[in-house]
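Bench notes, afternoon.
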Amino acid sequence: MEFTNEQKMLRETVRSFAIKEVAPLAYEIDRDERFPSESFKKLADMGLLGITVPVEYDGAGAGYTEMCIIAEELTAVCASTSACWCTHTDLCIDNIRRNATEEQMKKYLPPLCRGEHIGGMAMTEPSAGSDVMSMRLRADRKGDEYILNGTKIFITNGPVGDIFVVYAKTAPEKNAQGVSAFIVEKDFPGFSRGKKFEKMGWRGSPTGELIFE
């Protein structure tokens, strides 16, 4: 495909940033098994966290081609940083952009795009893996609220995240139509973090267990 001049400039900018700012930290964050907070702060300052989000929600107003360009350049120097960025930007932020209510977008998108909150997405479970139809996390309605009960594992940004898009079964008898997504804040009652998983690689991308009770 042919890239626009703006897209070519974006690639050059991100490539230069990745080589100068991200690559030097790759060994350190892997050794210390820590989230790349320095790189995330700089990516936020560059306006590259909410890449597909409209400008009125503090996003960049770009598209998926631009998202892929950034992911490619980050991955070329540090897979851990790229995994954290993709989870935050695609699985959390873009998910909210595409599916949330206007009220939810106004509340959650700006701080996520500014890097004030770290986002994640929770689907994988101990007994189901990423097989959505086999998930056991339930969301039962109690008046105007839903009560979630269950566990998610291997969640990227799990140990450090502030906002999570969480998938749960609301009507198991409806099969695929009975799965719903919820936005869960780290301070919600009944939410806690379980263990942080040790990995052979990508250790700068923290992976953990989330518990809903």
